[in-house]
Amino acid sequence: MHKDRDAALVNDCKRGDRRAMSQLVSQYQRPVYNAAYRILGNMDDAADTTQIVFLKVFEHIADYDSRFKFFSWVYRIAINESLNQIKKRRKQEPLVDSQASPWRGPAEELGSSQLSSRVQGALMLLSEDYRTVVVLKHITGCSYLQISEILQLPEKTVKSRLYSARQLMKKTLQHDEDNGVGLL
Amino acid sequence: MSERNHIDQRIQELLFGSIDGELGAADQHELDKLLASSAEIRDLHEELKAFTGLLDTVPDLEPPKYLKKSIESQVRLPVQSVRHEEKQGFFGTWLPAHWLQTGFAVAAAAVLTIGVYQMGSAPVSPEDANNLAGTIVKSRATAEGELLDSIHIFTDTLNGRVELRNKDDLFSLNVQLDSDGPAQLVVGFAGRGLEFEGISRTQDSKDIVSMVEGSVNVASSGKKRYTINLRSTADAHGQEIAPLELEFFTNHLLVHEAELSISEH
Hints:
Chain A is an all-alpha fold. Chain A has helices at about 5-15, 20-40, 45-60, 70-90, 105-110, 115-125, 130-140, 145-150, 155-180.
């Protein structure tokens, strides 16, 4: 989150500099992909969403107001696109009761870290509002103020959602712990 | 944890706020007093710290290898605004067709004493190339070698063909265009391990050549043939090179986009 460097790269992009575009993609593809993955719980959807996010970013780069932070703008688009993906998926697939169907994500299937898998499982049990604030706080490392800017919510609401979301996650992970598969 | 549920929400919010580094001085002072007075709150503080630490240490996943290239190959940057800003002080935005047709060479010569630039073997830097707007950057070298790829353009206002040839470390785009009004070809080669070598004319023209980092722009009008030469840099050998990106404009509008594949030689 280097505001000055981002602003310079964005200005270069506005002048058609593809190297600047490439640098911005390098800088943000990882956090955008990870945020999308943690919200969607699916690697393919996360990759598709990441592509859409960057295409939208550069399609509208001329309209971007440099008084605002570039990363806030990128993350806002990333969150909105991820939530749009969930809506699309809901239309295409029958609803599944997530409580009755414990999440088994690709990380677990591939034998990746138990931490990643269990936290993802707990995230997927949260509502989208709660999941979003947890992802922005703990996956992208945003502050309360930054989250409030990205989601365009009062900071108080961010705090309250984070509190509730983390309480729920703690309970889920504690439940796993009680069943011998937990992390706490 | 459940035995601590009676610890009120206010205190838990203070604890989370402190762990997140988001507490103001007054709230932190209030929490410090609470922590000093209650072992139970201290235990909960440690527990929440461990929990949030767990969330903060979830490992990042590596995005798929293809993702960056895929994004970059699809992104279209605002070329029109490039021209506007890059050429301030030179020729402004698109030169009107009559400028290209009449008197352009004289006006260009008045602005640029460089005139027609004879290329040696050294590549042209972006700065050099920008200073050559209004001229043709001549390159003696032309790859007559292997045909790597070619495209045809059939639009209402622009027709033609571009072929990409390679010999040793030289890549040549042989361009034949016939446009109705002012036309522009933008060749994007950023990140491909290529440098702009120059342009050779195969017929008399008053074309405008300019260069923005990683792309060459050639503005022309009517029937034109020219060759754009790009040279592979040493560090590109053995690497997979993404296709060159071509954008064709007539009368300020993007009318065609294409890619030319560069096979490893």
